[in-house]
User: Fold these one by one.
Assistant:
Number 1:
Amino acid sequence: MIRVRPAEQAGTAGKPGSRFTGDAFAYLTLPATDGVTINTVTFAPAARTHWHSHERGQILQVLSGRGLIQTRGEEPLVLRQGDTVWIPPGETHWHGAAPDSSLTHTAISLGVTDWLEPVVDYPGAAQAEETSS
Amino acid sequence: MIRVRPAEQAGTAGKPGSRFTGDAFAYLTLPATDGVTINTVTFAPAARTHWHSHERGQILQVLSGRGLIQTRGEEPLVLRQGDTVWIPPGETHWHGAAPDSSLTHTAISLGVTDWLEPVVDYPGAAQAEETSS
């Protein structure tokens, strides 16, 4: 068993890896252990991950702010404080902040992450506003 | 992808299943999906799970209160607000409240849970006090 206390978490000053667009900041809660990695990530407005998928899926827990998440081929969904999201194994998606809000979420990633290209069709403010729920 | 909002979570009025000692209350955040289940559980003082293990491991995130967790054959560890715990696949353990405090944690369980016998050697208040860290 591994117990990690808040003071032991590794904070980063800049981008959590190179697979992000815009400014993002991460605290590494659980370094990769038995294939499980836990990060708490803050995205500046309009910042987001590249498209990617997780070998065994991912859980997101939204701590604050407002964001967006999109599965390839589907419409984006809004993320709000208190939301929990399950992304199934192998499902290609991206997540990040709304155009006009920061977003902080905990990300529990299961298995290897397969990183893909940047998100170029990021929704503008008007479109994100229409994505009301 | 499944997005669960707080208002959609299923609260229970009593024990989350029959594999607990004492009073415990659960909100089901993510019903079992692709083998992943997320519960937020509150234990009254001295309440705890039976011994058990998880096929693919478990993550605990302590939201409030103070608790205890023990791996079979090891000393108990104290759980405090902000702690994150990783329990590896197949590791037999129990978790619950301290003798003199409630505990609320989110539990992310991976795969099938194998339930075992009740915990009979639950630490008394004095012993839990000595388990200082």
Number 2:
Amino acid sequence: MVIDCHGHYTTVPKEAQAFRDAQIAGRADAKVPDITDDQIRESVQPQLSFQAARGTDVTIFSPRASAMAHHAGDARANLQWARLCNDLVHRVCALFPKQFVGVCQLPQSVGGSPADCIGELERCVNELGFIGCNLNPDPSGGHWTAPPLTDRAWYPLYEKLVDLDVPAMVHVSASCNANFHATGAHYLNADTTAFMQFLTGDLFKDFPALRFVIPHGGGAVPYHWGRYRGLAQDMKRPLLADLIRDNVFFDTCVYHYPGIELLLKVVPVGNIVFGSEMVGAVRGIDPETGHYFDDTKRYIDVITWMNAADKAKIFELNARRIYPRINNALAR
Amino acid sequence: MVIDCHGHYTTVPKEAQAFRDAQIAGRADAKVPDITDDQIRESVQPQLSFQAARGTDVTIFSPRASAMAHHAGDARANLQWARLCNDLVHRVCALFPKQFVGVCQLPQSVGGSPADCIGELERCVNELGFIGCNLNPDPSGGHWTAPPLTDRAWYPLYEKLVDLDVPAMVHVSASCNANFHATGAHYLNADTTAFMQFLTGDLFKDFPALRFVIPHGGGAVPYHWGRYRGLAQDMKRPLLADLIRDNVFFDTCVYHYPGIELLLKVVPVGNIVFGSEMVGAVRGIDPETGHYFDDTKRYIDVITWMNAADKAKIFELNARRIYPRINNALAR
């Protein structure tokens, strides 16, 4: 089985974003839209086609990341928006239970407390059958005003994640800072930033069962694996492999063969989980290969020096370990 | 010849930082320190030893990056500090003219204009024989309040860089944002951020002769080269190789063999310039190899699939092209 841990509902019917725009503008006609099952079925045809063509069995599916825009609304608006987005993902999962399992957007906001997200997290996991969440380390959208992920302010949410036995993918949203292009800088910077926070903190001593997926191949981290090993050593921190073993995982959203090969060479196989971010950040076909940039399964498939057992960890078994609730979801 | 484009005076006599601390604290006893030639000779012995041991002939040498701390002082204080730091580098270069060539710190400040840096840049290039500068894309130290590098606010400085025919290394300083570890996150994020700004802007149409070195192996960029090629294609931008050809260069400050190999595989050889960041971010010996993490020459030396002519570009010829004033400096 091939589980893609990183898919967003980027093709959501346009009525959803129209509502959000009206809500943020404070327009009187802002009304949660009626979206039909037919619209939802139609909207995920691209994902279903790509899954079939690429040999992905199931996608761990969450609301469109760039549209979370936690910086744009207050706590109340963002809760309404998160509920709508999560409900739409839930409907996708209900219509296509073999192809999609849900991960939720959290109702974070600038200056809001992570504890405020617990209610929606519980609703999504306990009532909608979701198996994880996306956690935005920078609700300010590129101004980085929240405390680091190792700060105790996050602990109430972490307690709930551990309690529910669900992981968080560290995933920022759109950038409202002109310095940071969202998918070309802000996303990767956040991945790199989060990893270094984990390296320098003792978060996993306090939460041995807490699990984070760092997307986009871990940002800059695997490319600079020697730098991080050296920094950890200089700072008398544990070996990276020990530090991340049960707690930090990188997905395979790296859009060329040399990058994927480096990831698989340097990061322990137990800490890599298949992902494609499809349909997402890069939509075109690579003229150098004739294949979609984000067909990341293909890069792994052609690697000859990794055995089938290890590839099975990346494609399936690690995801089942990181997101244990997927086992029940897939057995239904 | 082997030219290391990326060395900082991290072993500067401690009187320098003591002055800066007193200056920032507004202490009455803040006085530009007297530092003797013997102190300077002594202070660079680590660099000289490493150069000799590793086979580096000359280092393009600049003030300690993390100590620039443009966020800490106002324009006047930062000018005094930049002059002191640049003068110390100049004295190193004068004492060891075969081993060091200078690159200057700019007196940037939060809210200050890039144009304010022109005087010190001219002094360093015209009077001290420096061959480039370090340009901080985020003088706020991790709050990213300055405009992107493609903004016209930077143009007066760029005009002077072109006029003097010197490049800028894009290099942030310390972080005063708790989210960003300096060498483990802020540095790499800035590299990634700057590249994406260049990709999305038309800066090099306005300044065809402007040259930037992006340090630390280009941050996350080479690892995500497919992502950037794909983003450029989706955005109808030029091919990356064309976009960067004469304007954007990556150094080799990547502290493990797989990272260096990836860099050399994906980035055109004309856009790679040897650097080690020595003595700098990572100071230890890699237990997996028995060699210093930052002995980046060794990683390149053992690559068998690149011919000597291409390695000569990385070790010497590209640096002579990017920093043309080095030719006169070395001929003296």
